[in-house]
Amino acid sequence: MPLDLAALSTYARERYLRIGHHFGPTEVLVQANKHLLALQTHAADLHHHGFGTADRAQLEDARDALQQALIARTRTRAMDYTTLHLHRGAIRQGRHQRRGARALLASAANHLHQTAGGDATDTALQIEGCLTHTARCPERDGESLALQLDVLRNMLLRPAVAAVTVDRGGPETVTDLTATITTLRTSNFQHVGTSAQSDTERVNVLEGMIVTLARSARKAAVAAGHRLGSEALAALFELSALYPPRATAKPEVAEPAAAKPEVAEPAAAEPAAAEPAAAEPAVVAVPVAQPSSEPPTISPAGAVQALMRSLTVVPAASRPGLTTSFTGADTGADGRYRTN
Q1: pLDDT single digits (tens) 6-31
Q2: Region Disordered: what ranges (predicted)?
Q3: Cα–Cα–Cα angle for 46, 47, 52, nearest 5°?
């Protein structure tokens, strides 16, 4: 039974749309097929834990609807590409036709200016006004370009202009302009009217619905597994397609470094035995007599001896007749001098 998404409430539609934004169609389809395959055997076990026959049917219908929506979106995108390509070609052709029609009308205006008569001059001025009005060429707007081509064609269809351009390619230009205008307007309508946005929104809603049903089936399977004591039942309904396990990084094993050849280092020179230091002479403290502030006391005998040492004694041989000499040895113990 095909799903009717229009019957969904606004809350459910927004919720499904929000959930569907976080998942891609490929993993959602894989998860739906995995659950539907497990339900072929264990639907009765999940029936008493919140996932009944109606939920299974809705999951299957949503899976089929998602497949069809993906096909329709792909077709729409292909049509959009084709339509865009044709639309650009029509605009390019229209610009060529516009350039040719303007050149033809400029030639007709020059010819009419050379013709005597007021009607010819008025017609030439009207042609110049038409050329001024269509001076700017639309870049990508097909409808605006079609309007300009329509103005140029109507000017060429005037009897006075048609009579001047009949032998200058006027009839052929009018025929080409008519065909180009029709193509441009048809292409512009198709280009604006087609869009894959609505198909993408439908895909997201279906993805959100399938993810919600898959989560419900997972909870029911866990509850049934606890009741039946079967861990395998819960494992069959794991959400592995929606939440794939993260790859854990393997610990890096450091490879043993290649042994480098040992280079014998030169033996360190042993320190030379220290020679015994020469024995320093013992320093004997000699008491130094401190100078006295009082003047030294000199005995009379010492004063005489000091005086005698300072005198120069002339030997007796150098002075004849003198038999007495004074030397330091002539003094007695009492300090008196003796006469020889």
Answers
A1: 888 889 999 999 999 999 999 999 99
A2: 253-275, 319-340
A3: 110
Q: How far is CA 1 from CA 28, 232, 333, in A?
A: 20, 32, 167
Cβ contacts of residue 81 below 8 Å, gap of 6+? none
Integer Cα distance of 218 and 154 in angstroms: 71
- Ranking 200-214, 220-234, 270-284 by mean pLDDT, the lowest is 270-284
Give 134's DSSP letter.
T
Distance CA 232, CA 55 (A): 22
User: 105-112 contacts: CB < 8 A, separation 24 or more?
Assistant: 105/130, 105/131, 105/152, 105/155, 105/156, 105/161, 105/165, 106/131, 107/165, 107/168, 108/161, 108/164, 108/165, 108/168, 108/170, 111/164, 112/160, 112/164
Domain locations in the chain? 5-206
* 132-172 residue pLDDT tens: 988 888 777 777 888 899 999 999 999 989 989 998 899 99
